[in-house]
Specification:
single chain, alpha/beta, Quinone Oxidoreductase, Chain A, domain 1, Rossmann fold, six-stranded parallel sheet, 15 strands, 32% helix, globular, Quinone oxidoreductase 1, EC 1.6.5.5, ADH-like_N, quinone reductase (NADPH) activity
Length: 334
């Protein structure tokens, strides 16, 4: 089979496709004939050795894939050869064959393409953890999403809307605002990046967006930095701010006395450890949003599909901020 192999850490375009041995599943493992790959910012960091987890080279990179089951290992009864699946692994997805632990493989509805499933799984599972598991968003909640046109942000807008929440997405341009509106939310264009002006904008425009000064119930923050501090200013009584990421590159801290005085909660929404500690919730959530995708109630927002040979250039484009929407790779071409 063909696959990418990280022999030593380096820029994405320094890595190449290798001819690799075919794989065989072990106990509680599923072997996937890979048809599609989703590309993520953490993938671009990992191939450079800049991600928080650093596998020792040589290793196969990549986390998101979709295709059909090729074989199953001992102990696997929920899947059989030929089943359409999507998987989220820690390494090895950038290959024509992928070994996935049973806990990381999900049935893919026939109506959901491999491209859409692979492109959606990380961003929608992350959004599910933030919106449903951590924030507990319910019908009628007022939800603010920062970085709302990014992969996770747009997934959060769509899932919160599907739950019946009133959603406001904070974005930086009209082009991005259009994506948020298509996803079921209202949009507010904010180009300011300094903390004090941002805090005032969130107090004056975001907090009062719904016609009163009650504020938001939930902020899903994918940006961090000054946006995190500003996000706290738009929360109402018992408001919850969920930290999803730090796209700004800056990690801020909240003042405990401000949280106490205003009866606020700040919480993290890490994806991977939920597979270890809340597997049944993750399975239920993945089945839920895949169903929404199959019914056309949410969109994967894959903006470009690359041939296999251009995968690493795609990661470089993500690093260079040249990508709008989500990149996916067709493993069967190039």
């Amino acid at each position: 089979m063909r696959g990418f192999l990280i022999e030593e850490y380096g820029a994405p375009t320094s890595h190449r496709i290798h001819d690799l041995p075919d794989l065989s599943p072990g106990v509680n493992e599923v072997l996937i004939e890979n048809h599609a790959i989703g590309l993520n910012f953490p993938d671009a960091l990992m191939v450079q050795g800049k991600y928080q987890k650093r596998p020792n080279p040589p290793f196969g990179p990549g986390r998101d894939c979709a295709g059909v089951v090729k074989a199953v290992g001992e102990g696997v009864t929920d899947f059989k050869p030929g089943d359409p699946v999507v998987a989220q692994v820690f390494t090895g997805a950038f290959s024509e064959q992928v070994i996935a632990p049973l806990s990381r493989v999900f049935h893919r509805p026939e109506a959901v393409s491999a491209i859409d499933a692979a492109g959606a799984i990380t961003v929608f599972n992350t959004a599910y953890v933030a919106v449903s598991i951590r924030a507990g968003v319910k019908k009628g909640d007022r939800v603010v999403v920062t970085g709302a046109a990014g992969g996770v942000g747009l997934a959060a807008v769509q899932l919160a809307h599907a739950l019946g929440a009133e959603v406001l997405g904070v974005v930086s341009s009209e082009e991005k605002a259009k994506l948020v509106r298509e996803g079921g939310g209202d949009a507010l264009i904010v180009t300011e990046r300094e903390e004090e002006p941002l805090k005032q904008i969130f107090k004056d425009k975001v907090r009062t967006h719904w016609g009163d000064d009650t504020g938001a119930d939930v902020v899903i923050d994918t940006v961090g930095g000054a946006m995190f501090i500003a996000g706290l200013r738009c929360l109402g009584f018992a408001g919850r701010l969920v930290v999803v990421g730090f796209a700004s590159g800056s990690i801020e801290s909240a003042k405990a006395n401000y949280l106490l005085y205003n009866n606020l909660s700040v919480m993290g929404a890490p994806l991977d450890i939920h597979f270890d500690h809340a597997l049944e919730e993750m399975r239920a959530g993945t089945e839920w949003w895949l169903g929404l995708l199959a019914e056309g109630k949410v969109k994967a927002n894959v903006s470009e599909v690359l041939p296999f040979g251009q995968l690493m250039q795609g990661l470089q484009d993500i690093l260079d901020r040249k990508v709008a929407g989500k990149l996916a790779v067709d493993v069967t071409t190039g």
